[in-house]
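ping. complex inputs:
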Amino acid sequence: MKPKLIVILLLLVLIPLGLISWLGVAIARQEQERVQQRMQQVLTARLADLREHVDRLMQRETRALRRLTELPTSDAEALRDLVRERRLVRQVFVLAPDKAFLFPPPDGPSDRERAALQRLAPVWQSSGFFHRDGIESGTAAEPTGWHTWLADEGVQLFFWRRPADGRTVGIELDATALLADIIGLLPSSDSGASDVPAGLIALQDARNLPLYQWGDYRSDARELPVARLALAPPLTAWSLEYYAPAAAMSRKLSGSALFNVGAAVGVVALALIALAITLYRDGSREMRAAAQKVSFVNHVSHELKTPLTNIRLYAELLEERIPDDDPKTRGHLAIIISESHRLSRLIGNILTFARHQKTRPTLHPAAGAVDAVIADTLERFRQVLEDAGLKVTFTAGAGRSVMLDADVLAQILGNLFSNVEKYACAGQSLEVTSRQAGARTEIRVSDRGPGIPAGQGDAIFRPFVRLSDKLTDGVSGTGIGLTIARDLARLHGGDITLERSDIGACFKVVLHTPAAPQTGAP
Amino acid sequence: MKTLFGRYSSIICMTVLVCGNQRVALANRVKMDVGMASTHMEADKKQLGYIKVGLTGFELEQARHTPVNVAIVIDRSGSMAGNKIAKAREAALMAVDRLNAEDIVSIVAYNDTVAVLVPATKASDKAAIRAGIERLDANGSTALFAGVSKGADEIRKFLSKDRVNRVILISDGQANVGPSSTSSLAELGESLAKERIGVTTIGLGLDYNEDLMTQLARKSDGNSGFANSSDDLLRLMKSEFGDVLAVVAQELVVRLDCADGIRPVRVLGREAEITGSTVRVQISQLNAGQEKYVLLEVEVPATKTRKTRTVATATVTYANMMTRATDTLSATTSVRFTDAAGEIERGINRDVTIAVVTQIAVERNKLAVELRDKGRIEEANATLTFNAGYLSLNASKFDSVALKSYAEQNTVDANNLDDANWKRQRKDMRYMQRSSEAQQSY
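pong. complex structure:
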């Protein structure tokens, strides 16, 4: 009983605790995901800020390039000076409306210009030259655009403008110089700067290799960036990427969330444990009190048993001495004997019940016949049953010698007969039938009394349950008779069940009665 | 649009037409010598000739140097840890000590990322600059491109034509973060040269990429140095600052217009732009008392004997750091044709011939590096041995100490082609090649 209580209380604590923990962890995880998403947004916004810087530089440079393309293009030496002096200008090209080169001069390009013409073959050969592949802007009358492509050395950039006269002025950008400018623009890693990120921000090229990076974080294995943003055209091949130590990021985030969940779970756990302890202490106190009561009743019953035995002994001795011609005295004595039998049965029941509460009683099987025990018990009840006006019918069918505990069976039958006498005397009939099949003995005890209301079939076997209303009115009883009978039947490897019957109640007693050994003592 | 010529505040045009050597000299002016290897050439034969435009810086008044704007860019990658970074710190501190209050200095350090230890600032608050240098430690990888870019960005904050603008890069490793190819760094050097920012590259130890470092220096017309041990670093830094602080002329543009019939072939040792018959060479700086030259190879058509042919007109414009003016010098050189071999021999110009011999020897030295790179050690050895013979022959003919020492250098090169010494020797050869090509002061 006690370990069961502890298990139940433990489950009471652990199940809600587990549920709450699981919920808490789920919420924390969700929270973490949310924070991570938010973090990603923040980092992306940061990258967007940086991109804005680069974009502005590009816009400035584009405006400068556009102004350069607006300069007169007839003076070859002036165009060459552009190439010599402008850091970002690697080469200048001027094409006639028919796409013939005006500059570099076809008759005398310098060695460098010749190399540039070859280097820019991808532009001249591009099918959608200055149209489809380029990023077009400017007015319809004076379109401008970028042509970008990827060479072995990296991104190549080409800016062009087509004035109204149909010529095309193109400028090949020095991507290396542009990169150096962008690097100059981006922050560096010196500890003096206030906005050094905890992670690492990298400007990546088209092959996803870092062109430039800054920040305190180092990762050997190239992990995925936390946030990534491609640069605006024409530098879409390059991107800004944010790398951060994932572990550090989540640790930082989930710290508070985990604490919250942990605190909630802890509080609930404490409450549950306190509740369980209270319940356990109340329960065990009640059980202690009940045990004390049982033990008290036990003591009292024992004390009662000895004088009762003496009463019965002397009453029976007296019965023999009373002459047969004094029926009045004999009648009085018979009542004393019968009532003392009833009293000893009650005490026996109480003692059995009390013993059951403490320890499981043991069976003492011995060779004997079931029918003999039934007949003996009926004989003991004969006077009482007769007085109650009950007609007894015994149909014997279990006469074989089997292993059985005669005392246990007598106690079972006594309880059943006593019940019939107490509650069903109105039926004026007690029918007992016995049957044997293999190691199984069935005894039916039926009456024609008021019967057991439907749905109460189980309740009657519980201790201290007495069916209320008129059935039990004015009838005395302890309410443990059927409980003890069933416990004993179960102890004997069987059971007692309430059979369905049209009139009155019918109890079926099943016992496990293996055949007695042939050579066994009686 | 501003044209190049529009900016000239004064034009000094001194043209003297004399057969042979032309000399232009004036106080506080760069001295220009234009000449050919000999006053005479063989008649009736299409042949190659060499024109040398020599430029010599005027002497500076004592205790005054041209203001400079330097960014010292230091590799702080893991390989620099220990003695190297300590010496780099020491070298930077020494450099800062030599600067005046008018000079501008910034200190940039890089590994995977770049840190601006000292943003561009006047060199007057030396304590703060020293504190920045002391923060220098070493770990991580080598983002060389970004380091130089950031150094240039610091220079740009005070970019001025009146200062010598230079990034001084000290590195001991291969670039491995960001653009890392020799061509990328060469392009970066070229774009910085347009802004008049030179990059001096000092390679430290035996593990740096000497091709990359030399190209970066060459394209930006900076100096190049090789510090075998970290102790050499201090010496090189001293030389570099001696060089930077002695600049008397900047943005030298040498233009050679070849006469009719003369075809320019190539310029030896320097970046040049050849358009038709015009050759254009830029030299970033010229120091007090130092000579730098442009050596042009031309194809001269067959000409009848006893005829004189104008070969080319050289025009030099430069920013005079003393007068803060832009000066222009011009001179024309011509050659006379003859049948008599003796006349050619008598007309030999020693300076020009030594320059020609030097540059040809440098080219042969480069060829030897290429051969050795391909594993053809025997051929490389033969080339260098031949080069040494060629140099010593000319050294004794012209009694030239420089040629003699270069001959010895080639012998040393020839003897160190084995695997054990090649790594160091290759760096030495690249350094000597660059130094000779650019007439570097160290």
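Chain B has three domains: 5-62+248-348, 68-245, 351-437.
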